[in-house]
Amino acid sequence: HSPHGAEARCENNLSFTGLTSMLDLINRIFEHPILPDSRYQLSKLLSKTGTTMTYYCFCPKCFTHIENAETNASFQCIQCGHRTSVSSLSDMPFFVTLDVESQLQRLLKDCALLDLTKPLHHDGSLGDLCDGEMYHKFAASTQQCGPRITFTLNADGTPLFKSSGTSIWPIQLIVNEIPAEQRMSKLVLAALWFWKEKPNMELFQNTFVKEMSHLSENGFVLERKGQLQTYKAYCICCAVDSVARAPMQGVTQFNGYFGCNWCLQKGERAGGSTKYPVQPLNPTERTESQMVEDMMTAVREGVTVNGVKTASPLIGLPYFNIVSGFVPDYMHCILLGVARQFLDLWFESSGYAYSLSRKQNMVDERLLAIRPPRDVKRLPRATKERRWWKAKELENWILYYSIPVLHGILERRYLEHWACLVEALHIMLQRSIETAEVNRAEKLLLEFHVRSEMLFGKAFMTYNMHQLTHIVKSIHDWGPLWAHSAFPFESGNGSLKEAIKAANGIPHQLCRVLQIENTVMELQDLTASPSVVLYCNSFDAKVTHKSKSSSDGTRFLEVVLVFHQPVHHLSKKFCHPL
Q1: pLDDT tens-digit profile of 386-437?
Q2: Could you tell me which PANTHER family the record lists for this protein (predicted)?
Q3: Which of 10, 185, 420, 566 is 20 to 30 A from 273 (CA-CA)?
C-alpha cells in the first residue's frame, strides 16, 4: 500500500475523482488490483483514519443552537420561534468542529517538542514565542500539569467564489512547542464556519472553548518514543486582524470610540472617521481584571463600557489573557496597513513636499531594475500595481527596496522619517533580539509615530498607526514578530480554499483532505522500498537554483534538494553543466 497516490493528491491538489482515477490507472499496471479504486472503497479506507466532524446547526435569525435538527424537514427555533425549512444538509445553516485530538496525534508523533516539564532556559534574548514574558508566566502557572502544549489561535474569513458572498471562517491552531522552522506548516483545523454571513462569535467561540477546555482539563494521549503520555493543551495566544479581533474580544471595532484592544484611548473624529492622535500622556493600559469587570457590567446592564460590548467566550479558555493574549499582528498592521497607507500618501497626493505622483515612473524604473536573489519568491512589481501587492511584497518593499529606491527622490526629512519604521521592523523580525535592540526599536517607533502626526496631521493617525505603540509590548510578551504573526494562517486559508473543488459539501471536502493526509502518514510507516521512499519524499522537496561559475568559465546549475519530512535522512546535490 504505497502512499504515493494519496501524497500526489495532497501535493498536486487533485480532486477526489482525480485521485480515484489515478489509483485505477495504477491498478491496471498489475494483474490484480492492489489499491482501492472506487469512491466507496476509498471513502471507507479514509474513514478509519480518525479525523471526524461534529455538526452544529443553528437558527439563521437568532443564532441559537438547534439540537437534533433533521434534514428533509423543518425546524422551529425554541428561542425566537423562527421556522426554517431545509431540503438537504447544504441548505441548513451550520458550522463544524473537527477532531483536534487525532490531528495532534498525527502531527506530534515524530516532532521535536519543547519539554515544559523542565525549567525553561532563557538568556535574556528573544528568539521565539517561548522566550516571551507571557509564555514564561504560563509555564510557571502550570508546573503541576505535567506534559503540555500551547496553541496560537487564528480565525479569519476567506471568500470562496467570485459569484457569491459565501466564505469560510476556519479556526486554525499552531502548536508553539514545535521548532519554529517546522511549526509554521503544521496547522491544526479546529472548526469551520460556512455560510453567507460572518460568524456569530458567541455561538462559534463558545463551542470552540468547550472543545479546548476538554483538552486542557482531560488532555489527550500521545505516543512519544514508543511510550504513551497524556498531554494537556492550552490556547494562550491569538493572532488575528483588527476586523476579527473586535468581535472575538467583545469590544467596539476600531472605527468607534474606545476601539483599541489594549488601551483606553478614546479616539477622536478627524477626516471623517475615528483617529488616534498622539497623547501628552500614555493612555491607560487595559488589564484583564478590569476588562472582565467591564464585560460583566456590559452584559448585566446592556450598555457599552470602555468600548466593551459583551463578554467574550474566550475568557473561558484556561490561562488565556483576554487582553495580552491578543497580539497586534504585524502582517495586517504594518504591511497591509501602514505600508499601504504611506504608498497611497506618496502616490495619490499632489502639491505637497512628500508627493511622488509625478515621480512614480522614476520610482518604478528603479524598483523594476532590482534583481533579488532567487530565494525571494516574489519579484518586485511596479507601484502602479500596488493594490495587488501581497503582504510578502509589501514586506520586501519596506525591508529591502524602499530606502534605496526612494533615496534622492523623496525629500530627505520624509525619507529619514520612513527609515525609522524600516529599521524598527528589521530589528523586530530578527531571529534573536537582544534587550538593547528592543529598546532601540521602541524609540524608533515612538519617533515614527510622533513625527507622523507632525508631518501629516491628525487625520493621518489611523488605528494601524496607533497599533505601533503596542507592538513592542507584544515582543516582550510573545517574542519576535514572526513568532506570532498571521502569515502561516493566511497560507493555511489558501490551502483550504484550493482544496475545495465544488460548491456542495465543502466541510466534507476539507475533512477528506485531512483524512488523506492522515492516510499518507500511516502508509509511510509501512513503506519499505528505498526507491518508493525517495519518490514520496520528492513531493516534499523544495528545489532552489544557484548559478555558479568554475575557473575555466563553465557555468553550472546547482540543484539543492532540501527534504522537509524524509523517511530516511537524505541530502544530495546535483550539478549539471548548462
Answers
A1: 999 999 999 999 999 999 999 999 999 999 999 999 999 999 999 999 999 9
A2: F5/8 TYPE C DOMAIN-CONTAINING PROTEIN-RELATED, F5_8 TYPE C DOMAIN-CONTAINING PROTEIN
A3: 420
CA distance 205 to 201: 5
Give the C-alpha separation, 242 to 465, whole Å.
Answer: 12
Geometric angle at alpha carbon 278, from 274 and 282, rounded to 5°: 110
Question: What pLDDT is recorded for position 8?
Answer: 46
Question: DSSP 3-state helix, strand, coil percentages of the chain (rounded to 5)?
Answer: 45, 20, 35
Q: To the nearest whole percent, how much of the chain has pLDDT over 70?
A: 79
Question: Judging by beta carbons within 10 Å of its beta carbon (0-12, 13-18, 19+), is residue 206 exposed, middle or buried?
Answer: middle
How confident is the model at residue 561, as a pLDDT?
A: 32
Q: What is the mean pLDDT of residues 455-462?
A: 97
Q: How many helices (H) and strands (E) does the chain have?
A: 20, 16
Q: Which amino acid is at 501?
A: K
Please tell me the distance from the alpha carbon of residue 136 to that of residue 424, in angstroms, as a whole number. Answer: 25
Beta carbons of 555 and 576 less than 8 angstroms apart: no
The Cα 514–Cα 10 span in angstroms is 9
Closest CA to 323 of 264, 256, 255, 403: 264
Q: Which three cell numbers stand for residue 502?
A: 465544488
What the block records as the C-alpha cell of 413 is: 526629512
Per-residue b or e along 375-404, where b marks 16 or more CB atoms closer than 10 Å to that residue's CB: eeeeebbebeebeebebebbbbbbebbbee
The set of cell numbers assigned to 476 is 516582550
Strand, coil or helix: 274: strand
β-pair partners for 562: 542
Read off the DSSP letter of residue 522: H
The Cα 1–Cα 526 span in angstroms is 8
DSSP structure string for 48-87: GG---EEEEEE-TTT--EETT--SSEEEE-TTT--EEEES
Q: Which three-class secondary structure state does DSSP give residue 228?
A: strand
Give dist(CA 9, CA 62) in Å, integer. Answer: 40
Output the pLDDT for position 233: 98
Please tell me what DSSP assigns to residue 47. G
Strand partners, 229: 222
Work out the average pLDDT over 509-530. Answer: 65
Distance from the Cα of residue 167 to its chain's centroid: 17
In the chain, pLDDT over 90 holds for what percent of residues?
A: 58
**391-400, 454-463, 537-546: which range is least confident on average?**
537-546
- Residue 546 confidence (pLDDT) above 60: no
What's phi and psi for 347, nearest 5 deg?
A: -100, -10
CB 537 within 8 A of CB 563: yes
Greatest Cα pair distance, the chain, in angstroms, is 85
Q: What grid cell was written down for 122?
A: 532563557
Cell 525571494 belongs to residue: 376
CA distances from 175 to 130, 360, 542 (A): 11, 44, 23
Q: Which residue has the cell 428533509?
A: 72
Q: Is 178:106 a contact under the CB 8 Å cutoff?
A: no
